[in-house]
Amino acid sequence: MPGTVLLLAASPVGKGCLVDAASVLPILAAVPPAVLSGTETANVVELADPLEPQAVLTRLRAAAVAPGPLTVFVAGQLQLDRRQHLPHLALARSTPATVRYTGFPWHWFREELRLRAPGSTSLVVDLHADAETWEWLRANPLDSGRGSAVYGRIAPPPNRRTVAGPAYMKAVATLLRSGHRPPLDQLHQQALARISPEAGTGTDIVLTAQAPVQAPAPGYLPGPMPAPTFAPPPPPGHLPSPAPGNQAPAAAPGPLPALTPTAPAASTPSSPAPALVPVPAANALPSPSSATVPAGPPTLVLTALPSTPPTPAPGNPHDAITAAVESGRHEDADVLAAGEEQGAVRAHGAGSQEALHWSEVRADLAMLAGDPVRSCRTWLAVASARLGAGQEPDAPAVEAAVDRAHHQWGQVRDAVLARELGAALAELRSKVPGRRRGALANVHQRLEQLQVSG
């Protein structure tokens, strides 16, 4: 099976630049694709100093859904956004004041790669951090997800008025140009050994998080749920704690009467009569609308479940679900997830982390099965439930739910359903504008077009 390689080098233009990230791309590009990937054949996608986070998201998503092993090489610099203090990969137009809107949130790597089978994804990173981000990293790990193997280093800020080079990534590229790719842990150690002392290896943060082949994290969502799957990063020195509203059974979303979980219009006709239980929303792709809305961390939802729970799959159910999806048996995958979900509801309660985990799995499965109506309906209900639980409108999980609902709404072609869902989306967009300007205007514009077209 062919592999996939994503080469990403990004850094700000101007005086805020700490590293000449793109200087490594010619060396990496000279490495045969099969060597970069460690497979017999591979597809390589290169992103050099991208301007828009949505462009990076589009490429990352395309790579994440490709079959076979995926290797992501990232060179660049990290900055914290000033509002939520979340690390972002700074892009060409990023500044400390605008990185929240112009940078690529690092947790998007985790969320977009979370559906991949354990052991199939590797990240090789060479990052520099500004002073504020460096202090943050001393107390907070850079979370790339438990399902990925991560190798590399994060370097502190270089001397003033100095632009550093991606020394670690250049060492990796030089080693690979020999035509041989050793196991990544060996390649990582060889690259570290090649970096000269002046490169700052004595103070670098070295990343050697090897995801186990039999990772405890599920193939479809980070698994066992000691904390919310997509909660905002915890404060320094603390483990994540459950998000508000996840300690008790989730209530049906109040402000969205149009989204009361009835039998979804685009669901399988043979589905049994629905019974209300929390269910998650689907993964999103970039919206084709003029106001493209980036997706963020996924969340959960209320939607219809079969009244008779299927029998849970033996062993690790995520493996069976992954196999069903890869073979195109989407209904079988949903039946397996529904059984696990209802088992979690009975054992732990509808608002438990275990139940919400399986709700998210089912929402992702709906997206993969091409059901944008159910996906959109689910994301809208998730956002409403989170807001009703007291989460802030700019909380990552709330923004993610509305952003993904926005995208999925853009895929709905039935005018009646699009108008119904669009009215609920407009109401939520007025409360949760998201990171991208013009999102609410985009909803109103399409609603007007739908009214004219009938």
Structure overview:
- Helix content is 37%, strand content 14%.
- The strands form 2 sheets. Strands 1, 2, 3, 4, 5, 6, 7 and 8 form an 8-stranded mixed β-sheet that branches. Strands 9-10 form a two-stranded antiparallel sheet.
- It folds into 2 domains: 207 residues, Rossmann fold, CATH 3.40.50.1460; 197 residues, no CATH class.
- With 454 residues, it is of the alpha/beta class.
- The N and C termini lie far apart (47 Å).
Give a brief description.
By secondary structure, the protein is of the alpha/beta class.
What is the residue-mean pLDDT, rounded to a whole number? 74
Count of beta strands: 10
Which structural class is indicated by helix and strand composition? alpha/beta
Q: What's the helical proportion of residues?
A: 25-40%
Beginning-to-end CA distance, first to last residue = 47 Å
What's the main sheet like? 8 strands, mixed
What percent of residues are in strands?
5-15%
Q: In the residues, how many domains can be counted?
A: 2
Q: What is the CA-based Rg, rounded? A: 22 Å
CATH topology of the largest domain: Rossmann fold
Identify the CATH architecture of the largest domain: 3-Layer(aba) Sandwich
> Regions with pLDDT < 50 over 5+ consecutive residues?
211-313
Number of helices: 15
Name the CATH class of the largest domain. Answer: Alpha Beta
**Large-scale geometry:** globular
